[in-house]
Amino acid sequence: MSQGTFLLVVTCDGKSETHTFQQDVVSIGRSRDCDLFLPDRLVSRIHCRVERADGGFVLVDAGAQNPAKLRGRPVLRAELKVGDSFALGGCEVRLALPAAEGGSGDETSPGEQTRPSHDLVAFLQIARALNEEQDLTRLLTQIVDAAIQLCGAERGFLMLGRSGEHSIEVARNFAQEEVLSPEFKISRTIANRVTATGVPELTTNAQADDRFRDLQSVADLRLRSVLCIPIRIQGEVGGVLYVDNRLQQQVFQEREKALLLSLADHAGTAIHNARTVEQLRGKQLELQAALGRVDELNAALQGQLRERTEELSQIREEISSQRLGLRSKYDYAQIVGQSRAMRAVFGLLDKYIEADDPVLITGDSGTGKELVARAIHAHSRRRQEAFVSENCAALPEALLESELFGYVRGAFTGATSNKKGLLETAHGGVLFLDEIGDMPLELQKKLLRVLQDGEVRPLGSRETVRVDVRLICATNRHLERMVREGEFREDLYYRLAVLPVHLPPLRDRREDVPLLVKRFLGDLAREQPTRVRIAPDAMERLVQYDWPGNVRELQNEIRRAAVLCDGVILETHLSQHVREGRRNTGAALGDDGLVPAERGTTLPDMVRELEVREIQKAFDRAQANKSRAADLLGLSRFALQRKLDKYALDASGRPTGAPVADDDPA
After folding, report:
1. pTM value?
2. Which helix H or strand E contains 473, and what residues bound it?
3. What is the mean pLDDT of residues 289-293?
């Protein structure tokens, strides 16, 4: 018989709730049929009981897998005193008495009166979670877990689709674990019936229910409590929510049926929303992929446009060259240039080509003097005959003489047979002598006699050979100054300079730089499969630079940048001195108007750089002959040796790697 009111204070996750009871036996568990409902998956459906006994209380285990613990020890039956706490699952329950008999009107109602409030709180939490979830897979899992929690079911299944065609999307148990092979764990007949009729099915004991006991699946699965609810999506049945309990009868009642109907209605809306979001995301991905393809097509079109633009530019250049050719008498396609200075050169060549007089080509190193000589030969009446070329600075005097005039057997040691000279080899054609300013004076005298008499006497021979040769000479030196200083024969100079032509340096015809760059890139395209282009900022830097090495330096710069780049030459691929707009050679002369400190150097460093460069140039001209190099530098052999020692240079003017002296020993 009841002996007054007592309290059970439940603490879970830091939150406490007080429940009031008057009966002699209070059941505690995860089942909503228990007097004290604890929605914890670690708590058994009927976990334990609190009973009155002899004026006191007793804690009795109800067959749970993990019995309640009192004072840290699991108990099957133990005395429970007021103030004692026992643990089950993740909750702690404390036995207490009300402060005053009868309690307050605000205290929690006993037994069944607590269930509606618990159901409402649990349902609101579930509804909030479903509203916030947009991922369809996670949403379906939450729906099944919520159904198991609300109904106290052992297992839950969610199927989507029409009758006979639906698939099991989620299968879970009360411990939130996946049920393996779920298609063999449910009664599809019940699920199909609910899908077809849209009417929920509830049985408290399927084994004894006339509606289901003859079903093979019910017998095979030994089903007892089963509840199957239709899920309506936009007004039509789109699936079912199926929960069961194979061990206990009468687990599900009308109360659980009502809860699951409400959950199913809410779930249908949430599933529709999640599908809509999923479709929108799919459309967004398709749109992004389409935009990516559009970007790829745009890039391809831009590449084609650039190629077409370049082709049109080349066509315009060809047309321009053809127009230039119409203005000029001959086609100088191999000589790139449309500037006023180059048009003046072409105008002179038009007049020089038909003559037979010697041509003297002057200009800085790298301006293309040999190209001009070959153009004269290619368009002259001698074009079917030989074009013979020789660099006068590349050979010592004795060897250069034998190369030019030839020799007969026995003329000198090693002359075992007769050999024609270049003058005789070029008979009927053109002989091009480069660096004519470096020809020794004695050879200048012999060359003058050939020009005057038209005859050549090979070394060691008493007989002369008639030659008909058009002589074209080139130099980057100031021959008139050399004539005044006695370094070049005056009579030979006037004989060679009958038809003079001066090639302007590249810095005086900057408008030709883009044309030259495109020509060099076109040459590279024929050598390698990868097509190389140049960015506008890089082209601007090339145009602004002074190019002390002229066309040859520009060509080498383009070839170097083409190796470094990945298809497009950028400003960063250019040499540092080109990017900074300063000359990398000849800067020691101070032609830029800056003092040494403004160039980031000192006067001694500039002098050292100039002297080393000129010494190396002299050795190159003299073929490593120290006496000849000293003469070219205007120094004595002893003074040159002191310079070599000072700058740690070897006998050919190249660095030895030894430390460089700080002061001149002279």
Report:
1. 0.46
2. strand 470-475
3. 88
